[in-house]
Design brief:
Blueprint: H1 3-15, H2 18-25, H3 29-43, E1 48-51, E2 54-57, H4 59-86, E3 90-97, H5 99-102, H6 105-116, E4 119-126, H7 129-137, E5 143-147, E6 155-164, E7 166-170, E8 180-181, E9 190-194, H8 199-210, E10 216-221, H9 224-232, E11 238-240, H10 242-247, E12 252-257, E13 262-270, H11 277-300
Parallel strand pairs: 3-4, 3-5, 8-12, 9-10
Antiparallel strand pairs: 1-2, 5-13, 6-13, 7-11, 7-12
Helix pairs in contact: 1-2, 1-3, 2-3
Amino acid sequence: MNIRQLEAFRATVLVGTVNGAASLLGVSQPSISRLISQLEKSLTVVLFDRANGRLVLTPEGRMIYEQVEHTFSAVDKIREFASDIQNTRIGNLSIACMPALGLGFLPSVIHDFCAEHPNVSISLDIQVSPKIEDWIVAQHIDFGLAQLPFNRDDIVVDDFCNIPYYAVLPRDHPLAGRAALHPKDFDGLPFISLTRSNSVRHLVDQFFSTHEVNRVMRLETSYLSAVCKLVQAGLGVGLADPFSVQDHIDGVVARLMSPSVDFRVGLMYASHRPLSKVGRAFITFLKQRRDELMNNVLVAAGRGGKSRGK
């Protein structure tokens, strides 16, 4: 039994004659007769009574036909499903993201993407960067957004973001009127830092040490979004990435600092697990939103222009 035999049988039932079935399928009448005969032999069931030049379904043939209709209904659903996949109307995405992007920016992007693709399901995990890399290699997720640099040959990396950290200040801070800042401007100021377990903390500490800046280490927190919130409350100054700044743009003043510490994020996925079509569509959408956000933050910081995202 094969699909061509089932097609011939189904077409004959639908149009009522072998000639009609042949015309419907674009084959010869003998081909239809042969396919039906082969199907009857394969199933060991008589499908039609042949009398007076007419084909009439036997009771057994009618039961077989009902199952054939179920089969073709399933085939039609597969075709429709494939079309939906091709046109990114459906799909599943599993994403892991570092907190800086995952607490505000990415949920907003997911909201807008799902509004355009309501039948796409998305899972978002907020994780530290080393864990994200492990999950990618283990194929627990489709792709991740994690801090760079890193050294693994089994992960494909797209440089998603490469831009300096912003200085964040309370809106009434004396430095808020400056267009740009220097590391020396932080000397003696109460500074809100990341905790020592965060790798960025070590980069920032080394940066200020290199410039011989003595900050007053007043508060520590695990997330840059919390740094912005504490700055907004007037408890000190700090550094934050553009995504965290955007989430608090109405409550803090952001200024570029030169020189500064680079904020680098990679969009990464396993080299042995290509992205799905809906995954590629989401990433295109994600990059558009990234560019919009970075330009918005640059404008708010008094330095309008294009971002260094890629």
